[in-house]
Design goal:
Elements (H helix, E strand, L loop, with lengths): L2 H52 L6 H11 L7 E5 L5 H6 L8 H6 L4 E5 L2 E10 L2 E10 L1 H48 L18 H49 L5 H31 L9 E4 H15 L4 E5 L11 E4 L1 H18 L4 E8 L3 E8 L31 H11 L3 E7 L3 E9 L3
Parallel strand pairs: 6-8
Antiparallel strand pairs: 1-4, 2-3, 3-4, 5-7, 8-9, 9-11, 10-11
């Protein structure tokens, strides 16, 4: 069952139940009112009949019959009985009258007893005259009341059926008004594929859940389009980066094998092959590290890490790979409590991420001055790497985390454009973030933020 039918069905059932309960309520209290009014009529007639029967000097039977004929409409199957004492149960049973359990107690207390058996209404009325107590029994059928109730039942049933039909039709229209925007979104989304990710859902004129849903889909499509475009660029650049050294290796090998050469020429060819193979090795190693970083780290490889110690180990590693660096470490803003510089993570991965950032700073500043500083806020540890190198063009700053992207002013420097994407991926795994600010020709500032281990 689709959502439109569900809404219509639930709306109709709910409204139908409410109307049914209301109809039962109306019928019940209408019947009580009719019964009460008819019993009142029986009581009044019983009082007049008792007065005519027992007080003959004042109002005789002839006068009572004349009054009843002129002013009181005779009730269907109306009967009246007069008893000098509480009626005998055998007499009443012989007339097929079933008495209520407290019949005698009520009459002894001087109360009128009223009840209904089948279609007949019975009223037993105590009457006092000349110090004696008598009982008047009045019985009749309320044919007019029953006819009115029967008409009411028919009208209520017809009204319920008509109301349910109207509610169902209105519910269908109402649910269509609600569901149609969603159906339109579904139909449009179905037409979006890999070949037309630039399509977007039309914005809704009014604010609400449908507008939020449309915006959410459009945001998702933006991310998908960016992801597909990045992947496409990644594959193109990867193919180019892999093809270049492989072409050089194959070319040198074919050239060397094309004819006999002296040992010096072979050594030159092998030197080119070794250099290109080394470049290919570094490239594939970087790609492997990028892939192995994944999106999460196994818990058994996680632990508490002091960032000041991690920065010192990064400095030691860079000193080994690039002895000519001019890295300066600034720990002047360290908090007294080491908990504020302790994070939870994988030490090897974080060391790799920070090392990539520091090596970039050294490389693109031509081994100029690079400052690594560490400070903390109430909830974050912040590592800042600053250099005074060539900087990054402002328009290209947004692309530095795309794999294989290299800024337009880095052609003179060896690199593959993999280090920063890898660093960003590792930092994100640790629920951190990395930001770059740069000015071309003036230098670059990299800020890495990590949540403090609570």
């Amino acid at each position: 069952m689709n959502i439109r039918n569900k809404i219509t069905t639930l709306f109709t059932l709910l409204t139908g139940v409410i109307i049914l309960m209301l109809s039962v309520f109306i019928y019940h209290f209408s019947k009580r009112s009719i019964d009460r009014e008819f019993f009142h009529r029986l009581t009044v007639r019983g009082g007049i009949a008792a007065q005519a029967h027992y007080e003959e000097g004042i109002l005789g039977p002839d006068v009572y019959n004349e009054i009843r004929q002129k002013h009181l409409q005779r009730l269907p199957d109306e009967k009246e009985y007069f008893f000098d004492k509480i009626p005998d149960s055998l007499f009443l049973t012989s007339h097929h009258i079933t008495l209520p359990p407290d019949f005698e107690e009520q009459l002894n207390a001087g109360k009128t007893v009223q009840f209904i058996r089948g279609l007949t209404y019975y009223s037993f009325i105590p009457y006092k005259y000349s110090g004696k107590r008598y009982i008047v029994m009045m019985s009749a059928r309320n044919d007019y009341g029953e006819e009115g109730l029967r008409d009411m039942r028919q009208n209520l049933v017809l009204g319920i059926i008509l109301a349910v039909i109207i509610v169902f039709v209105v519910g269908m229209l109402f649910s269509a008004e609600i569901v149609n925007p969603i159906s339109n979104i579904i139909q449009r989304v179905k037409r979006i594929s890999v070949t037309n990710l630039d399509m977007r859902l039309p914005e809704q004129p009014s604010k609400g859940e449908i507008s939020d849903l449309t915006q959410t889909f459009n945001d998702m499509l933006d991310r998908l389009e960016t992801s597909f475009e990045t992947q496409r660029n990644f594959v193109n650049k990867l193919s180019h980066e892999l093809r270049t050294p492989l072409t050089a290796i194959l070319g040198e090998a074919e050239l060397a094998l094309s004819k006999e050469r002296d040992p010096q020429e072979y050594r030159a060819a092998l030197s080119v092959i070794a250099r290109e193979a080394d470049q290919l090795h570094h490239l594939t190693t970087s790609l492997l590290e990028l892939a192995q970083a994944g999106n999460s780290v196994k818990e058994e490889f996680m632990g508490s890490i002091r960032l000041d110690e991690l920065i010192l180990s990064v400095k030691k590693l860079v000193d080994f790979t690039d002895p000519g660096n001019h890295i300066r470490i600034n720990f002047e803003s360290l908090p007294e409590d080491i908990e504020y510089i302790t994070i939870y993570g994988n030490q090897n991965l974080l060391k790799l991420a920070i090392t990539n950032v520091v090596q970039n700073a050294c490389k693109y500043s031509n081994n100029g001055k690079v400052t690594i500083s560490l400070h903390a806020s109430e909830s974050q540890c912040i590592v800042v790497v600053e250099d005074r190198g060539i900087g990054i063009p402002e328009k290209e700053l947004r692309y530095i985390f795309d794999p294989f992207f290299r800024a337009s002013n880095t052609s003179a420097y060896k690199g593959y454009g993999v280090g920063l994407p890898l660093a960003q991926k590792i930092i994100r795994i640790h629920r951190g973030e990395i930001r770059f600010t740069s000015m071309e020709g003036a230098g670059t500032r990299a800020e890495m933020r990590f949540p403090i281990r609570s």
